[in-house]
User: Fold this.
Amino acid sequence: MSFFRDFVGPERFYRVGVVALPTAAVLGVLGPLLIGQSNLSILGLYLAIPMLAGSIIVRKTQPVTYEYAFTEYDIDWRIPSILFHCTVAVLVIVLILTPVRPTIFYFGVAVLYTLTFFQAATADGKELVVLYQLVVAYLLVIFSVTLNYALFVGRTDLSGHISSANHVLETGSTAGLSPTYEPFPLWHVFVAESTLISGGWLETHTSMYLLSGFIFAAGILGMYALAARVLSMKKFALFAAFVMVCFPLYLFYGMYSIARSVTSVLFLLLLLTLMIRRSDSQRVVVLLLIVAIVIYHPVSIPFVLVLLAGVALTERFLDTRVPIVDTYVLGVAAGFTTIYWFYRAEFIVGRLTASIIGMFTGPSPSTGPESVELSPWVEVANYVPYSFLILLLLLGFLFWYQQPTLSRSTFASLALFSVLIVPLVFPGPTLLLDSLVGVNVGRFGHYSFMFVALTGGYGLYELVRRGGVRTFFVILVLVSCLSFTAVSNDFVASDNPIIERPFYTFYFTEHERSSLEHVGATFEEPMAADRPACRYLRSFEATECERISVDGEGELFDEYDTVLLRHHENEKRPLQFSRYVYEDEISAANIELRNKPYDSGSVAMYTR
Assistant:
């Protein structure tokens, strides 16, 4: 490693980066074209453009010696603060008056984000005000979905978690939970207890949404504290927190109130604890946080362990002065995980073993969403916020390594590590990795937002610091575009995305929910339906349901005696059977020739 360090040392990273990035960008777009994969070339644009732009911007700017560019301007912080609260009031009224969040809501949130960033950049000594506004803006985005619609289920795992929490609430015991969730009941107990404390005022799923939202809002404060520990600059710490609330996965998992979501915030707190000077009490807290991650969601710890090991290797490579990840941390994480898995979650060991065997003996995994193949431009449009984030991340990396004397600091290690894990964190590259290794590599993005925020926050900090007033206005435009695309893409805003992907909506309407409850209570026969409806019926109504397969020969529904279709959803989106099926395909299958014992207008049942 020492030879490699000498050959490609930290002092060379900047010079190599400004050449390698545009070269890789061009090859990444032209390469797939040469082999006839134009859709991958289109998808690669969201990576190529920030790689080219980052190299150009860094070449055109020069390091500065003064601390900050806007300290000489006397800007009254109360003006943007008043505008912020007025905008919040207007957006709340919009939510009350509209059944589905309109496009104007996303513009309003972009205004909130931009006003908050403006205050972070110009108001000295108002860190608490900026953090408060970041928390308010974030919670507005989160709760405008989870508390605004009848039942948010996200990618459908939430149905099982709500059902498990209901079971704990009704029986007062974790005995009898499904085998999938039985090894990690702590989240379900927490939600059930919170529902009990409310005295019945809150439903179980509402308690779950509130807890998740507030935990992730607290993560904003944790991110600020972590950034301030890494670099003792309050402006940078505010910018890092701002970048984090623009990361679509951080927005989505604040909504997606499952046990796995909580572990990402616990990992953030673990990294914050590792930044504290080592002592017996610090090591006890480290141990408790690792134990909490494992107990809340045992499947999260392998991803956390890989990330910790990656940070440790990066620190060893750079010979970081004070490494934050030592053998104690890795040993405790690996040791407790092994003990817990074998004594409490042995099914995970079996599942992992089967997955490893399947990687070598089973069929090739899916290459990713159909939209990448069929609608690459739509996919790229939804990746735009990731393009902005990659740009800021690359700028932070290059700006830092322009200063070779700083290459042995903790931030230098974290910045290098954040660049190395880009293929694991951002969508697009993960689709290829998933297909190659047969593992959900994209899960790393759920646990890596803090690395993106740290490095991207520094990129934003240096952009503002190196530019003048004109540059600052350009940065405000960039921040506004990042904010708007972050909250309006189809990964986060499935209710009314600016550009719709061929995917399902992440929530049930009140009408759909009451219809599914009626079906579950009235009909006893097994049925076939789309994936979200099936998970709802199995989790909440104990109804036997099978996801419809459309891969066989013959008519679409030939092999099923009873079929349930969500027609209201199908008018807007394709239904997720074994593949996504549009309304015209269902109409062509002559489903109307069957008996229709139930039709609520949004949900209908068809029998032979």
Q: What stands out?
A: The chain has 29 helices and nine strands.
